[in-house]
Design brief:
Number of strands: 10
Oligomer: single chain
Shape: elongated
CATH class of the largest domain: Alpha Beta
Number of domains: 2
CATH topology of the largest domain: Methyltransferase, Cobalt-precorrin-4 Transmethylase, Domain 2
Distance between the termini: 46 Å
Largest sheet: 5 strands, parallel
Number of helices: 8
Structural class: alpha/beta
């Protein structure tokens, strides 16, 4: 029977969002691969899991190889990220691909995902969306990507850090227009969850008035020409 690596979604913040299946998988896992061992250990302690925790570094091929080899030698292993679904703009796909290539079995343990959570509460037309994840750092590349994605006529979902969100909003304004409607979700499911909705220029003005911006951010932009379209 092949070894199994389970791609396991964990809460964005609120621990009540963990599914019974996810909790069972993490309690039964022999090794849990993760981004931040401290954060994952706290979750495992909360669940009463005795699993060994090992940091996984997507950018280090030695780490990818080591984790794939360990997963192959153990019947039950799991991969988590700091919150949400691994491999969706979070580390994990290289490990999954390597493990599959070496004959392992990969399963999904679905659960929280910031993109889906933010889109569901955005108030924008439902249906298809374009997920851009984390944008390039160079402004010209951001604007090019935004224009190309907007041409598909769907809401655009972007992950961003608090340190770069103003730059990203500036790129949205430059590429799509100052009145582009956006919904910005900060610290979803956590104690200080916040939503900012309105024209991109107004949301940028509000953020620029703050001394500090904290927390993980998901930004959704609705291309102006689609505001009244049935999509």
């Amino acid at each position: 029977m092949p070894a199994v690596l389970r791609i396991t979604a964990t809460p964005l913040g609120n621990l009540e969002d963990i599914s019974p299946r996810c909790a069972r998988v993490l309690r039964e896992a022999e090794i849990v691969f993760c981004e931040d061992t401290r954060r994952t250990l706290a979750l495992l302690r909360h669940l009463g899991s005795p699993a060994r925790v090992l940091r996984y570094n997507e950018n280090d091929d030695n780490s990818v190889s080591r984790c794939a080899a360990l997963a192959a030698r153990h019947e039950n292993t799991a991969l988590v990220c700091d919150g949400g679904t691994p491999c969706v703009s979070d580390p994990g796909w290289k490990l999954a691909a390597r493990f599959l290539a070496e004959g392992g079995k990969v399963e999904s343990v679905p659960g929280p995902c910031a993109a889906a959570a933010a889109f569901s509460a955005s108030g924008f037309p439902s249906g298809a969306f374009v997920f851009l994840g984390f944008m390039p750092r160079k402004k010209s590349k951001m604007e090019k990507m935004l224009r190309a994605a907007a041409a598909l006529g769907r809401p655009l979902i972007i992950y961003e850090s608090p340190f770069r969100v103003k730059d990203t909003l500036e790129a949205v304004i430059s590429a799509l227009g100052a009145r582009t409607r956006v919904a910005l979700a900060r610290e979803m499911t956590k104690l200080h969850e916040e939503w900012l909705r309105g024209p991109a220029e107004d949301v940028l003005k509000e953020l620029s008035s703050r001394d500090k911006i904290l927390g993980e951010i998901t930004l959704i932009a609705l291309p102006p020409r689609d505001e009244d379209a049935d999509i």
